[in-house]
Every structure is written in C-alpha cells, then in structure tokens.
Automatic annotation (TrEMBL), chain A:
Pfam families: ABC_tran. Keywords: ATP-binding, Nucleotide-binding. SUPFAM superfamilies: P-loop containing nucleoside triphosphate hydrolases (SSF52540). One of its GO terms (molecular function) is ATP binding. It comes from the Bacteria. This is ABC transporter ATP-binding protein. PROSITE patterns: ABC_TRANSPORTER_1, ABC_TRANSPORTER_2. Residues 3-239, 255-499 form the ABC transporter domain. It comes from Cellulomonas alba.
From TrEMBL, chain B:
Signal peptide: none annotated. It is found in: Cell membrane. The chain crosses the membrane at residues 49-70, 129-148, 155-173, 179-200, 209-227, 261-279, 300-329, 335-353, 360-378, 390-410. It is a multi-pass membrane protein. This is ABC transporter permease. InterPro entries: ABC_transp_permease. Residues 1-33 are annotated as: Disordered.
Length: 514, 434
C-alpha cells in the first residue's frame, strides 16, 4: 500500500512539532525517518496513527485521502504501529495479546483461542521466527515481546507498519533478528516506516531515508550516504563520529576489584568471581549482551547489593560493606543505567536533580537548611556547561528529552572531584549530537586523572571509549582485551568463547560485514 | 569501520543460546503496582488548588439540593408542582439560602448580634475548632509528600493528648515550663506511636496503612483502659475522665473570656511555617520529597530509604501528637475517651483538600472548622440536619479524588495532557544563559 503524507502540520501551543511535512512511502519499501530526539518523528507517526489530529495537511493511502479519528480507524485502514514502549498486557499469553480488541468467537460467545494460536504460528512461520503462542508475555525477553507487537499488527493485516525506535530496547543480537524480520516483511510487500536516530541501522536496512530536524523535513538521503553526512543533516551542523581521543596516560592503579561475587534474590550467582584493576587516567569498558552481570557489577560497586565474597579497593580503602552514601562520599561518581528510574526524580526540578546526591554537602546546605542560591547558581552553571536544553532550572526534569535528562545525570556526577567514575549505558536513548558531547566529557574526566569504568551494551560505544575492554558473559569476565581488538573477536567473547579461541575462530571464518 | 554497519550483525552471537540471566526491563508494564499506587496517591494529594475550590463549590451545590429535598415546605410545594411550579422553586431557594446563611452566621459573622464581640464570636469559634485540625493535617501532609499514607493520625492524636494531658494534670511545674513540657509530651506521644509504624515498614515492609489503622484501635482502647486506672482518674471518682489540667499547663486564651480562641492557634501558625520550611528549605525535606517521588533514584543518590521512612513517620506523628496536646491543653482541659473525636480522620480530608501544602491546609482547616461550627448552628436555626454537613465534607473528598470529573463538569483542560504526548519537542532555549 502506498502511503503519502502531504503538508502535515501539528503544533502544541507555541511549539510547532511538525511543520508542513511531506512523506511518501512506496509499497514494499523500508522508509527510515531519521532525526534527533524531539525532532518531531513520533508526533508525525502519532498523527498518522490517529492519536493526534493534524492542524493542517492530508493523509493519502493508495492516492485516496483518509482521515483517522483514532487508532481504530488507522488499524482498519491497514496501518499498524509498534510503539517504543510496548502496549501489551503482561499477564496475557501471546495469543491472547494478539487477539485482544478483535477477538474471534465460537458459538455462544466463547473465545476462539485456537484461531489466535493458529494465526500466531502461521505468521511466525511465514516470517521465519519462533514465537510460542502460549507463552505469557511478561516472561518473554524484550526482543520477543517486540515480535509479539509486530505479529499483533500483522494479524490485523497491516499493510503499513510503523516501528517507533524499535531498537532502543534491544540487544545487538535482537537488533539483528529484528532487521531480518523487517527485510522479510518488506519482501512480502509490507511498507515499513522505521523511526530511529541510529545511523548504522538506517544504513543497514533502509531503502529511503528522510531526515527531520526541528519539525521539518531537511532532506532525504540514500542508504549509502556516509554516516557523518547523515549525522550532520540530523543535528544541523558538522558532527564528528569518531572521538579521536588521545591515547591514555595511565597513572597508578588505584582501583582494584578482587573475586567479587554477588547472588541475586533467588540465590543464583549473577556476578561470578570478577577481578580487574583500573588505573588513574584510564577507561575500562565492560562489554556484553545485556543481562550478563554488568548491572549487578555496577550496583555492587555502589553498595546497592552486598557481595557475598570479594573486595573492592579504592585508593587502598575497601568499599565493600559501605552504604551508597558512603561510597559516593568516598569520591565515586555513579551514573545508573536507567536514568528515569534510578538517575532522576522526574517530579523534581532540574536544579534539584543536579544536587540530588550533594544536598547534604556544605556547598549546598548549612545546618540542615538548603542554600537555594547556591543550588540555583550550580544549575545555571551546569546547564550552560553541559548545554542542557531546558526552559530553565525550575523545569521538571521528567519533562526533558532523554538526552537532556542524561546530561543532567552526568553533569551532576561530574560536578565534583572524583576518585572513580562509574557509568552504565551513559548514552542509551541519546541522540547523535549529545552522544558526541557526553563521550568527550567522559574522556575529559579520564584526562583529569580519574579512573573510569563504563558499562555499555552498545559495541560501538564500548570500542569508541575504551582504553581496555573487559568482556562479560554469564556473570564472569571472559577476558580483558585491548581497545583495538577486532569486533568479530569481541562478538565471540560476548558469547562466552575464551579470547584465544575467539581469535582463532575469527581468523578462520572472517565475516564479510553487512 | 565503514564497511561494517551493525556491530551485532557481523558478530557470531546469532543463534547462540540466550543468556539465562533475566533481561532487565522486560515486563511490558514496567512500574510495579506499588509504584502505581504511590503515584496515584501523590496525584490526589498534591494536585492543583483550583480543583479543591471547585470540588468545594460542587459539594455545596449538591448539599443545597439535599437541603431542599429534606425540607418539609419544599416537599409540600412539590405536591402541587403542576398547578404552581414557582412555589417549589421559591420554597427550595428559601430553604437553601436560609440554611447556608445560618451556617455562615454560625461560622463566620453574625450581623444580628448586639455587640461586635458577639458578632465575630462565630469566627473565633471556627478558628478554635480548626486549630488541632490544621496541626494534625500538616502531619498527614508530610506523610503524603513523602509517599506514605499515614492513616493513623487518629491514634497519634490520642497518644499526644494522653501524654500531653498527663503531664498537664499529674505534674506540677512552674508557669511557662509546664505548658512547654506538656506540649513536648504530646509531640513525643504522637512521634513514638507513628514511629512504631515507620519502624515496622522500614524493617519488615509491613504496610503503614494497615499498621496505622490497627494502631488507631490500640490507642483508643489503651486510653479507655488508662481512664480506669488510678493514675488517670480523679481520686474517689469512678467517672472515666481525668482530673483537669493545671492552669499552668493550659494554652492561654487570646481574646479574653468571651471566646475560646487560645494560643493553640498560634502554635498552628508556627507549625504551618515549620512544615513549609521543612519541606521546601531543608535537606531532610528534600530527601522526604525525593523518596516520596522516586525511591529508586533516591537510593542510588545515597539516601537511606529505611531511615527516611522512619523519620517521615516520626515527623508526621509528632505533628499529630501536637494536635492532640493542643486539643486537651487548649479547649478540652480534661482527658476523656472521646478526646480526639474524629480529628485524626478529618485531618486526612483537610490534608487532601489543602493539597498537602501548608497554606492550603491552613485554609482548608478553617473551612472545615467553619462547616463543623456552622453546621450545628444551622441545625438549631433551620432544622436542617447536621448530617448534610457530613455529606458535603464527604463529597468534597470524593470530587478531589476524581479531578477528571471536576474538570469535565467545569470544562477545564487537563493539565497533564501535554505530558502524555509521546514526543514534545523541547523549545530550543537554554534557560540560564538566555
């Protein structure tokens, strides 16, 4: 089905989120919509899906003008949408989720669950992936939940499928699988609108690329355009994608982790005998597929989960057994992996969040009374220094875009002298322009002589920032390798293959790239 | 790097078994049910003031309909509605205006009174009744803003009155000191009582709603028992009331003998200022609010959740206990089983109505006191049952708990709507440097 948007305009008060946007998606085409966070991509798709009504402009399907009063109309017209945050009932099975809203019934109004099961199996088989119709959704990994969303759309005969930032929550493996499914769908004639800000993915899968910046279409590009070119279009200025950082000048080894072992609530080992050293002025990145003990490592270092064995020494002092407060006060800067849950208080203002773990220090309070002037001055300084895009220090942090929220967390943690900096997923869900900025700040902290530990599931980021890379698999460190280790080898190690074997295998079966 | 597009795509991890470790963030729902309950509580307790005002107006309108409906004159006029419909409307209008004006005269200002003192006496009475209500509601509000539902204000008020009263009648201290010690006794009584619930919540996870409700019963029957013991009763009497508190422990009257208004009202003002300072200007209040809003981020920022929970409950209970002490040292002067009335429960309503903000609570407390005082006068003057007042109070809470309903009735926009929009492009201004 051919989809055409003509002159779509949508404003929220004084903000023009979409300014006369034109877009044509041909049948059997993957059309990437590329833009920074807040550029207006999702607004446009919500207009198309009937969630918002456009102020101006028209939507044409197969050259016929259509208006959608709500998602129901859009679904009926053959438009399916997979939201960034899944719209699934966690306690329902896959088949129940798929049939929800258009339940088939047998005589006497009984649910025809078998029909839904058959439909799920049929669709899964057609597009070559596995999906158990009777699995309960909340037990499934994120990547599989996303497949359920896709099947849900396909089960309603979607001819146009909108994928809103589908890879934001996926591991590299799951991303690969999703890309495979997208290609299958395209070959079967489905039109796909793929919303993203990740350049590699766009180039890997898109047939046509439309770039949106500040609510306007700023141009289109072909998939073989250079990444730097796409990035510049997206942010409106030249962006350097490679960090080009100077080689590390490691100083004394001040941070030592020895035989750290952590159990989860159920008593199984999630961090298994982990040991590593970290020197001043050095970045060690931890690579691994999500869920291999990296989260537990970061939390154990902060003192959120007590280890059952091992030691963590920072400048000779054992941090094991200290409370998070004491660890932070010992000079550890900590960026948690999920900023909206663990990093920020969404209802609090930007200025309050910028001192969240510092209010008790003499700089911001005296005798238990807050020093509001100092808190405001700090906020103004950090907003300027980190280029945090906000309406002001008193804006609620929860209303900032993801990238700006992340800047608030990093600004806070980097705003005091540190003896160790630990950051998990420092740029998850952050746009290209901000990633560059945040990476430079992290390298600057290294160059200040701080030992830096970065945990990331984005291989790009791991390689970009690392002076050394520790690869984790099932709670263990498989090996610690130099930053220039080939990606093939890292990939194998992330699957648990020891370093020497991984190098051998990679040499025997070089991958051709995409 | 340029010929290798996707890191994962070239990696041989495809087809490898999934790691057994759970994938974080997997459940589609995300937030736990407790998080949802907490955020619902926060929305109800801290929404906009406008909804409170409109909720009150709506409750008055519905209250008016009920007043008319139970009035015998109105009922009679309704009997011949089709022959003279205007009679019904006139009768209804008269009945409602008479009832509400009697309520106003009883609660605020009586223009028919002979002297000025008599004319404003209703207002001072309203202020007197509002005093303990405001203080206890401030305590409940501290809990609300820290994400804790302290239903146990009633029990804490009772304990505060018991301890404060005991110091008042059993100890004999110099003037000035005696009152101070009695007030501190009340604070301690409430703080300890709420502290039990806080400790149990922090240590064992026992939900504070259930624990505080149960502690309300314990407090009530503890007081009933104490009032049978020699230490708490007048020697030689078998009445379940304590001796009167010493003159030196009483809160002095502010305006003279003609009004019951006492220094407790000043204590209430000071308490409101203190709570304002605590919640907006102090490190402890900052942590209270942070834990109430996002315990996960607070914990990651080094705040001890369990310590904070205990502190919040102790602060909340201390204020409720102070309210109990003010009640006995200011107006009651004597301990009896009914000392707290329904103070602790009304305080929850006042905290809700005042949106957990000190100024809001102060005004809501006065309003509540006025309804109470004026309602009694209304019943005496017009025969309208005081139960109508209880219905109005209940409706206020009902409407506050359902802001969308109030907004729909008054065609107000939903302030949270833009927040629901998935992408809201931030205006490209740099706040500070601009």
């Amino acid at each position: 089905m051919k989809l055409e948007l003509r002159g779509i305009t949508k404003s929220f008060g004084p903000l023009v989120a979409n300014d006369h946007i034109d877009l044509v998606v041909e049948p059997g085409q993957i059309h990437a919509l590329l833009g920074e966070n807040g550029a207006g991509k999702s607004t446009l798709m919500n207009v198309l899906f009937g969630l918002y009504s456009a102020d101006e402009g028209e939507i044409l399907l197969d050259d016929e003008e259509r208006t959608f009063e709500g998602p129901g109309d859009a679904l009926a017209a053959g438009i399916g949408m997979v939201h960034q945050h899944f719209m699934l009932v966690p306690v329902f099975t896959v088949a129940e989720n798929v049939m929800l809203g258009h339940e088939a019934t047998k005589s006497a109004g009984l649910l025809d669950l078998e029909a839904a099961r058959t439909r799920v199996r049929e669709l899964a088989a057609r597009f070559g992936f596995e999906l158990d119709p009777d699995a309960v959704v909340e037990d499934l990994p994120v990547g599989v939940q996303q497949r359920v969303e896709i099947v849900k759309a396909l089960a309603r005969d979607a001819k146009v499928l909108i994928l809103d930032e589908p890879t934001a929550v996926l591991t590299p493996q799951e991303t690969d699988e999703l890309i495979g499914i997208m290609r299958q769908l395209r070959d079967a004639g489905t039109s796909i609108v793929f919303i993203t800000h990740k350049l590699r993915e766009v180039r890997a899968v898109a047939d046509v690329i439309t770039v949106i910046r500040r609510g306007r279409v700023v141009g289109s590009a072909s998939p073989d355009a250079a990444e730097t070119e796409l990035a510049s279009m997206m942010v409106g200025r030249a962006v350097s994608l490679s960090l080009g950082k100077a080689p590390a000048q490691p100083g004394d080894t001040t941070f030592e982790v020895r035989n750290l072992t952590v159990l989860d609530a159920a008593g199984s080992v999630v961090l298994d005998d982990v040991s590593f050293d970290l020197a001043r002025g050095e970045i060690l990145t931890v690579a691994g597929v999500q869920g291999n003990g990296q989260t537990e490592l970061a939390e154990a270092l902060l003192g959120l989960t007590p280890p059952i064995a091992g030691s963590v020494r920072l400048e000779g002092r054992d941090l094991v057994g200290l409370s998070p407060r004491e660890v932070l006060d010992a000079g550890v800067g900590f960026v948690p992996e999920d900023r909206s849950v663990d990093g920020l208080v969404g209802d609090f203002t930007v200025e309050e969040n910028l001192v969240l773990d510092l209010v008790h220090t003499p700089a911001y309070s005296r005798g238990g009374a807050l020093n509001l002037g100092a808190i405001r001055r700090n906020a103004e300084h950090r907003i300027d220094e980190f280029d945090i895009r906000t309406q002001g220090p008193a804006q609620a942090a929860g209303r900032l875009s993801g990238g700006n929220q992340q800047k608030v967390v990093l600004a806070r943690e980097l705003s005091r002298p540190l003896k160790l900096f630990v950051a998990s997923q420092p740029t998850r869900g952050v746009d290209v322009g901000s990633i560059e900025f945040l990476h430079r700040r992290i390298v600057a902290e290294r160059d200040n002589g701080t030992p830096v530990l970065i945990v990331s599931t984005e291989l790009d980021e791991v390689v970009e920032l690392a002076d050394r890379i520790a690869v984790m698999y099932r709670g263990r460190i498989v090996g610690i390798v130099p930053a220039d280790t080939p990606r093939d080898v890292l990939g194998l190690m992330m699957a648990g293959v020891p370093q020497s074997e991984a190098e051998q295998q990679a040499a025997e079966h070089p991958t051709a790239g995409l | 790097m340029s010929d290798e597009i996707l890191p994962g795509a070239t990696s041989p991890t495809i087809g490898m078994p999934q790691p057994e470790a759970p994938t974080p963030g997997a459940p589609a729902g995300g937030a736990t049910s407790e998080d949802r309950a907490a955020s619902m509580l926060r929305r109800i307790a801290t929404g906009e003031i406008g909804v409170s005002v409109l909720a009150f107006v709506l409750a008055l309108v519905i209250g008016g309909i009920l007043i008319a409906a139970v009035d015998p004159d109105v009922t009679k006029a309704a009997g011949y509605f089709f022959s003279r419909p205007s009679d019904l409307l006139t009768a209804a209008w008269d009945s409602v205006t008479q009832a509400y004006s009697a309520m106003f005269k009883g609660a605020v200002f009586n223009p028919d009174a002979a002297t000025f003192q008599q004319a404003i006496r209703p207002l001072t009475e309203t202020m007197t009744v509002a005093t303990p209500l405001i203080i206890a509601a401030l305590g409940v509000a501290v809990g609300f803003r820290a994400g804790l539902f302290n239903i146990g204000a009633q029990g804490q008020v009772i304990l505060g009155a018991t301890l404060g009263g005991y110091v008042g009648f059993a100890w004999h201290l110099p003037v000035g000191l005696h009152l101070l010690v009695a007030l501190v006794g009340g604070i301690l009584g409430g703080a300890i009582w709420a502290g039990i619930a806080g400790f149990l919540r922090a240590r064992t996870g026992a939900h504070e709603v259930i624990v505080t409700i149960m502690l309300n019963y314990v407090a009530l029957y503890l007081l009933s028992y104490l009032l049978t013991t020699d230490a708490f009763t007048i020697p030689g009497s078998n009445q379940p009331t304590s001796p009167g508190v010493d003159e030196s422990a009483q809160l002095p009257l502010l305006l003279g003998d003609w009004s019951r208004l006492n220094a407790g009202f000043i204590v209430a003002i000071l308490a409101a200022v203190f709570v304002w300072w605590l919640m907006t200007r102090s490190v402890i209040g900052f942590r209270f609010r942070a834990v109430g809003s996002n315990p996960h981020a607070s914990r990651t920022a080094g705040v001890s959740i369990s310590t904070t929970i205990v502190l919040v409950m102790v602060t909340s209970g201390a204020l409720a206990g102070l309210a109990g002490a003010v009640q006995i040292l200011g107006t009651e002067k004597q301990l009896s089983a009914g000392i707290a009335g329904s103070l602790g429960f009304d305080a929850i309503t006042v905290a809700l109505l005042g949106r957990s903000r000190p100024l809001g609570i102060f005004l809501a407390g006065l309003l509540y006191g006025g309804l109470d005082v004026g309602g009694r006068v209304m019943e005496a003057a017009t025969g309208t049952p005081i139960d109508i007042v209880l219905v109005i109070q209940a409706l206020v809470v009902l409407f506050i708990a359902a802001p969308p309903l109030v907004r729909a009735i008054f065609h107000l926009p939903d302030p949270t709507a833009p927040r629901r929009a998935k992408v809201r492009p931030e205006p490209v201004v740099k706040g500070a440097s601009a």
